[in-house]
Design a protein that fits this description.
2 domains, alpha/beta, Leucine-rich repeat, LRR (right-handed beta-alpha superhelix), six-stranded parallel beta sheet, 26 strands, six-stranded mixed beta sheet
Length: 455
Amino acid sequence: MKKTIVFLLSALLVLAAALSLAACNNGVGGSNDSVTRMTITLVAAGSSGAAVKEEVLGDETEYYTVSGYSFSEADAAIVSNAEADPNYYTDLYNGKRKGTESYAEEKERFEQMKSFTVPTAVKVAVSESKLNLTTENLAAMDDNGVIDLSNGASNAKTVYIRAISDDAFFNHTELETIKVGDNVKAIGSGAFNACSGLTEIELPFAGAKEGAVNGAKNFGYVFGTASYTGGVSVTQSYNLSGSATYYIPENLKTVKIGSEIGEYAFYGVTTIDSVADIPVGNVIPAYAFYGCTGLREVSLPSTVTEIDEGAFNGCSKLVSVNFAELASLETIGKGAFANCSRLCYKEADKALTVPASVTFIGEEAFANCASVEKLVINGTVSVRAAAFKGLTSLKDATIGDNVTLSTGVFMNWSDFLTVHNSASAGGENARIAHAFIGAYTADYAGIKKNLEFVA
């Protein structure tokens, strides 16, 4: 298989070179010519570029791959002939020559483009082999994301855009927003590398594709590993032992993902402050937002039943989570919100109310959430050791009768604390007192002078 792919790629390069020479000899383009273009590649079944199709696209026979847009003088003649060999490549470009007024105007329009939406599909005549795609075409995209270049041809076909190639938008610093719809099934490594002006991006998935593994499942994958001015170095773990370093635009603040994210998806991404409509099923995966120190507010879907281990650990600016809306939440995993030092800071009473549906809170789940002043735990729930350790601002805790607390749940706590529990009318309730071992100070008589149990 590898030999076949190498052979086909070699044949393609020979074909491209031959076409380039022929074009130059016929005056189609020379070393002094240039084009402004957006390159989109047609890939058909059996071609050397069909790897994505075989893995992702199932039975589809052809699709387009966005390869970005450029102003290279060498591009004019390097165009393969889809009519001669429809299994290879077709370039879409506008063909305007350098030095002409139309070229200069079009080049300027591309350079001033602030927002780019990847088209869903292009409608063309069946016989079309060289297609034009200009800023005017992009502006004429219909509400479904389709660009019609068929000119009313009776034999028109619609070819969907299914992939974005490696480095497709390299160094397009003019772009501030990019939107990629769910028609795209694969995005290449570094597709948006050096897009330093980006402030917002919408993607169909995090990483290379749905179900990607290792580094290809990280959000940073599409920004690549090459450094550039305006890029922030982010090392993203993708499992317990592996990691990769990507460079993400420092101005990128808002992200929207269209499908379920995987474990470690946004691990260590420090730039973003908002992930809109987090697309999960029933589980927020382990370490999905670990160390996202810029993340400020999180609105989770009401369908969530589990927030897995370390999901938001270290989100030091996270001030608000919509716990009141999570009526289906059952499990809060180990260290899920550990070191979220500003959690509940935005709330008027700085209260953390655990949903009554929760049945399990793991070790250090809310450790070092130092802004929490009031805690309410009801329902039938088992709380593991150190789940609320380091809540140094905690002053008031309400603990229901069906709450089971492990020893040392509230260790490393130092403020005066009033504990409300219906079984504490006569003072300390032995059933829950052990949870405060390591949390209180005592006078010489052994009285817990900063801890009061009331009904």
